[in-house]
């Protein structure tokens, strides 16, 4: 059954072929206002069988089986949250409190969640992850990537990925998150690239490694990513989160889809990202929740790097599931224009997941969208903290 969504005051398509200015005064791509969002005013969209079959000015819309008028609201492509850790149990609010009163974030806290996750039943883990995905949906997220990484043994990592895979096809094997307690690091890497990878690969699309001091060094990261790639998983990397290090370099070397965090990036790292086409996925909610310095997104954009924004929702370094919050931080703290930030949170996320069916709205895209209780996408950053997502559609169904 086809549905005509009409009365859209401002439709963001991210469709470069539309060539319309992003907003009054925001015309040229690459200008300070940033991205061309392919905006159509007084627009309509026709959805059929989960996909967009028509989009354009409402005056020219074809008939459909059902008509829905959104009353002048803005519609944007659903957010693509390309980095999240949702399969876990336990709570680390006390660790957050300690950070807010002066302690730094360290990778060691992950072990607290590992203990709680291992002790939880499948149903508890499933329930927690489902609740978080529902929370994301209410905030306009229509695609989410979910990592393992709080199991850290063969059974537990495979279990995490099985549960993640019930919720999304974008599942990531992160057995190389940290070395579990009382384990020899070299022996653990052997396990990750051997038995653990064999057990996890059937449930995963991606392989990831936390390449950082206190987690895995460059050689271990290369080994994990190459073994994952040989098993058919595409690489992505937790890179340069806690300091300057080799993570971005390794991501570029192995042709990862994305280098995530990039909180500390040298000019050489930026050139490397731009030249290799590796997406830089910036995670401003983590800087917010760890009191680390925000990366300057302008440096990345000016160097020609494709930038995505994601939440990195996890119980340790930042427990926000909100893409609108991440987007507002990106504008306020990382010097992105509102247009660049919206693009990064939608089309950028799709690029980081190497998806061409999401992150935009037009003929052939999936019908993934958010209806905003606002006349323009600008309100996402202009009204931070306000629940502006009125409704979310995923593959043609209201979520
Ligand atoms: O992306 N950096 C590694 N992993 C997560 C944090 C996980 C945790 O602290 O539980 C991150 O920040
Ligand atoms: Fe992460």
Automatic annotation (TrEMBL):
It catalyses: 4-imidazolone-5-propanoate + H2O = N-formimidoyl-L-glutamate. One of its GO terms (cellular component) is cytoplasm. It is found in: Cytoplasm. Its cofactor is Zn(2+); Fe(3+). The keyword Transcription does not apply. Gene3D superfamilies: Metal-dependent hydrolases (3.20.20.140), Urease, subunit C, domain 1 (2.30.40.10). Pathway: Amino-acid degradation; L-histidine degradation into L-glutamate; N-formimidoyl-L-glutamate from L-histidine: step 3/3. Pfam families: Amidohydro_1. Residues 75-396 form the Amidohydrolase-related domain. Its EC number is 3.5.2.7. Zn(2+) binds at residues 83, 85, 238, 312. GO terms for biological process: L-histidine catabolic process to glutamate and formamide; L-histidine catabolic process to glutamate and formate. Binds 1 zinc or iron ion per subunit. Residues 12-34 are annotated as: Disordered. It comes from the Bacteria. Keywords: Cytoplasm, Histidine metabolism, Hydrolase, Iron, Metal-binding, Zinc. N-formimidoyl-L-glutamate binds at residues 150, 314, 316. Belongs to the metallo-dependent hydrolases superfamily. HutI family. PANTHER family: IMIDAZOLONEPROPIONASE (PTHR42752), IMIDAZOLONEPROPIONASE-RELATED (PTHR42752:SF1). Catalyzes the hydrolytic cleavage of the carbon-nitrogen bond in imidazolone-5-propanoate to yield N-formimidoyl-L-glutamate. It is the third step in the universal histidine degradation pathway. This is Imidazolonepropionase. It comes from Myceligenerans xiligouense. The gene is hutI.
């Amino acid at each position: 059954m086809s549905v005509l969504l009409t009365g859209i005051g401002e439709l963001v398509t991210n469709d470069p072929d539309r060539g319309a200015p992003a907003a009054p005064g925001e015309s040229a791509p690459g200008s300070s206002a940033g991205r061309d969002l392919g905006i159509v005013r007084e627009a309509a969209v026709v959805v059929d069988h989960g996909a967009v079959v028509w989009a354009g000015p409402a005056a020219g819309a074809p008939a459909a089986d059902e008509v829905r008028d959104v009353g002048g609201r803005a519609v944007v492509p659903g957010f693509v949250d390309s980095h999240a850790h949702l399969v876990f149990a336990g709570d680390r609010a006390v660790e957050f409190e300690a950070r807010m009163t002066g302690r730094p974030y360290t990778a060691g806290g992950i072990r607290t969640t590992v203990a709680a996750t291992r002790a939880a039943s499948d149903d508890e883990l499933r329930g927690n992850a489902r609740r978080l995905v529902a929370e994301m949906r209410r905030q306009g997220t229509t695609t989410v990537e979910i990592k393992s990484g709080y199991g850290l043994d063969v059974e537990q990592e495979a279990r995490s990925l099985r549960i993640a895979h019930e919720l999304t096809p974008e599942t990531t094997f992160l057995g190389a998150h940290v070395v579990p307690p009382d384990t020899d690091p070299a022996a653990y890497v052997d396990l990750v690239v051997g038995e653990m990878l064999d057990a996890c690969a059937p449930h995963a699309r991606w392989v990831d490694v936390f390449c950082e001091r206190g987690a895995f060094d460059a050689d271990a990261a290369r080994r994990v990513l190459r073994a994952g790639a040989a098993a058919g998983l595409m690489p992505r990397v937790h890179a340069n989160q806690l300091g300057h290090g080799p993570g971005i370099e390794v991501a570029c070397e192995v042709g990862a889809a994305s280098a995530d965090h990039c909180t500390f990036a040298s000019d050489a790292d930026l050139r490397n990202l731009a030249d290799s086409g590796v997406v830089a996925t910036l995670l401003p909610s983590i800087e917010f929740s760890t009191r680390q310095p925000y990366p300057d997104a302008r440096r990345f954009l000016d160097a020609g790097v494709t930038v995505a924004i994601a939440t990195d929702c996890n119980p340790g370094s930042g427990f926000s599931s909100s893409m609108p919050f991440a987007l507002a931080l990106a504008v306020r703290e990382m010097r992105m224009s509102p247009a660049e930030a919206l693009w990064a949170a939608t089309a950028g996320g799709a690029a980081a997941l190497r998806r061409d069916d999401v992150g935009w709205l037009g003929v052939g895209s999936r019908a993934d969208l958010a209806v905003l209780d606002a006349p323009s996408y600008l309100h996402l950053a202009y009204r931070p903290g306000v629940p502006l997502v009125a409704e979310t559609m995923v593959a043609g169904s209201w979520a």
